[in-house]
């Protein structure tokens, strides 16, 4: 028995297999939203590549240049909660179309900037593109059945690969279009051609989103009050999911911006080669998201998160170890150096790619939790989780810099990542243990083989442990949330 919130229109997620609820249109929604999100993500992070020619033209310092990227990332995070709520209420089709149109304006203005101050302001405005993630999550969730939402949201989230789009096409376009521009200057040249081209593509994508996607959109938040849509944000588990997303997405954004500098400073590589090696991290961190969604559908999101955190802890634990050796001092003998340790560029790249793979899988697992626990509030909850996760991409680079400056070791970057991941892993595991003990307190101190295993707990016990109503008919599995829960004890 599935509960549908009063005032909400039925969604595929609420009624996955009913014959009166056809799936026609869901493929178009997923395809259009994924392409649009890839474009918006490319626009959001385009200054990572355009920064060098911008610095040369305006004579900027590294700090000034860093602020251009930072303000774009910031504006791409702070509006995700209201954007998700609005998408739930009015439908993803109209909200995504409007966002594409609104972003095209500052993208064009960036190509016309004549001073650092003006460019900084336009960079902040164009960063609005980053908020499209919350809209797409709401739109896709409303159209896809719950049993397939992990895979669908993973495919949509693979649009993160847009972070690499400008890295590949930007330098070629800058070199191909003369600085004087085309058509008598009507089309700007040099680095300015890239934001101009993005403005044109955003307008074209807005037309596709409006005219090709299904006209009769689904609105899970229609008719609901703002207070009722914000009520789930009181639950602790929402903030825990947000920390998970800081680890798998905020750190992804931070490392995507930080790694080129790390390769140059630590290994002395040219910037072009550093950018290509960074792309090896970006691609799996984006393209493996559908795999994470599929695995979350099949084996449960929490199991995937355990694997994600475990992999990241091992890889970042190796990378954070300072380089050096042990000196053995023996009487009557010269000091002897033993156990030298350093990570070469090949091993470093392999470990970073492993972290990227774990992040790509983990990002999908985090968002698999949301429609399972909050089927009627995906926009609000997904918006908050995405907002705080993206803010991690704003705050982590300064933490990397402070840790490196304090320790004198660039490996401290991965010490920050290790500690952050460890906090998230311990919080998740503590929650699981708490649920197990609540469901069956008589097993708290029994460890012998002949005692009942946790998997033998009844569905009713799991429901009560996770804050649901007694007797809730759910599977006896810790990865299965409670569809009828009133207030979770998940902490």
**Biggest pleated sheet:** 2 strands, antiparallel
Which oligomeric state applies?
single chain
Question: Can you list the strand order of the major beta sheet?
Answer: 1-2
What is the string of helix and strand elements?
A: HHHHHHHHHHHHHHHEEHHHH
Q: Which class of secondary structure composition applies to the elements? A: mainly alpha
Task: Tell me what portion of residues adopts beta-strand conformation.
Answer: under 5%
Q: Give the CATH architecture.
A: Up-down Bundle
Q: List the uncertain runs.
A: 1-21, 459-491
Descriptors for this entry?
flat, 491 residues, mainly alpha, 19 helices, disordered C terminus, 2 strands, 66% helix, Growth Hormone, Chain: A
Task: Describe this structure as you would to a colleague.
Strand 1 and strand 2 form a beta hairpin. Helix 2 packs antiparallel against helix 3 and helix 12 packs antiparallel against helix 13. The protein has a single domain, classed as Growth Hormone, Chain: A (Up-down Bundle), CATH 1.20.1250.20. The N terminus and C terminus are likely disordered. About 65% of the residues lie in helices and about 0% in strands. With about 500 residues, the chain is mostly helical. It has a two-stranded antiparallel ribbon.
SSE diagram, text form:
Blueprint: H1 26-44, H2 47-58, H3 62-78, H4 80-90, H5 92-110, H6 116-126, H7 132-143, H8 149-157, H9 162-176, H10 193-212, H11 226-230, H12 236-267, H13 271-287, H14 289-299, H15 301-319, E1 324-328, E2 336-341, H16 345-373, H17 378-407, H18 412-439, H19 459-465
Antiparallel strand pairs: 1-2
Helix pairs in contact: 1-5, 1-7, 1-8, 1-9, 1-10, 2-3, 3-6, 3-17, 4-5, 4-7, 4-17, 5-6, 5-7, 5-10, 7-8, 7-17, 8-14, 8-16, 12-13, 12-16, 12-17, 12-18, 13-16, 14-15, 14-16, 15-16, 15-18, 17-18, 18-19
């Amino acid at each position: 028995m599935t509960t549908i919130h009063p005032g909400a229109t039925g969604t595929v997620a609420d009624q996955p297999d009913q014959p009166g609820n056809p799936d026609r249109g869901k493929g178009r929604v997923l395809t259009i939203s994924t392409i649009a999100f890839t474009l918006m993500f490319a626009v959001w992070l385009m200054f990572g590549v355009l920064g060098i020619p911008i610095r040369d033209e305006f004579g900027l310092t590294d700090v000034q240049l860093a602020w251009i990227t930072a303000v774009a990332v910031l504006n791409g995070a702070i509006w995700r909660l209201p954007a998700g709520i609005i998408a739930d209420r009015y439908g993803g089709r109209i909200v995504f179309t409007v966002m594409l149109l609104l972003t095209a304006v500052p993208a064009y203005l960036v190509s016309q900037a004549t001073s650092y101050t003006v460019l900084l302001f336009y960079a902040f405005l164009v960063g609005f593109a980053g908020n499209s993630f919350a809209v797409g999550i709401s739109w896709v969730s409303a159209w896809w059945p719950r049993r397939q939402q992990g895979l669908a949201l993973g495919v949509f989230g693979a649009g993160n690969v847009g972070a690499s789009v400008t890295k590949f096409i930007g330098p070629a376009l800058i070199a191909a279009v003369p600085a004087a521009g085309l058509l008598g200057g009507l089309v700007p040249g040099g680095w300015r051609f890239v934001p101009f081209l993005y403005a044109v593509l955003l307008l074209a994508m807005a037309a596709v989103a409006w005219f090709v996607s299904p006209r009769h959109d689904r609105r899970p938040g229609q008719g609901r009050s703002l207070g009722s849509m914000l009520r789930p944000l009181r639950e602790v588990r929402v903030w825990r999911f947000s920390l998970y997303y800081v680890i798998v997405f905020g750190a992804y954004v931070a490392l995507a911006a930080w790694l080129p500098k790390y390769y140059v400073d630590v290994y002395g590589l040219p910037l072009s080669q550093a950018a290509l090696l960074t792309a090896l991290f970006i691609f799996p961190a984006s393209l493996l998201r559908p795999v994470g969604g599929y695995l979350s559908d099949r084996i449960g999101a929490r199991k995937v998160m355990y694997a994600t955190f475990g992999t990241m802890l091992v890889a970042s634990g190796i990378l954070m170890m300072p380089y050096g050796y042990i000196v053995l001092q023996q009487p009557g003998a010269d000091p002897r150096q033993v156990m030298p340790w350093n990570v070469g560029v090949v091993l470093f790249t392999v470990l970073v790619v492993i972290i990227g793979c774990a992040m790509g899988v983990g990002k999908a697992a985090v968002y698999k939790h949301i429609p399972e626990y909050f089927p009627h509030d995906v926009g609000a909850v997904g918006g908050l989780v995405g907002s705080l996760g993206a803010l991690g991409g704003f705050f982590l680079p300064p933490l990397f810099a402070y840790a490196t400056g304090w320790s004198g070791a660039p490996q401290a970057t991965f010490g920050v990542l290790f500690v952050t991941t460890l906090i998230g892993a311990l919080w998740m595991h503590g929650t699981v243990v708490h649920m197990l003990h609540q469901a069956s307190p008589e097993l708290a101190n029994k460890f012998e083989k002949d005692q009942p295993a946790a998997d033998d707990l009844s569905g009713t016990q799991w429901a009560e442990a996770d804050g649901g109503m007694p007797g809730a008919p759910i599977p006896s599995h810790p990865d299965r949330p409670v569809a009828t829960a009133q207030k979770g004890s998940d902490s």
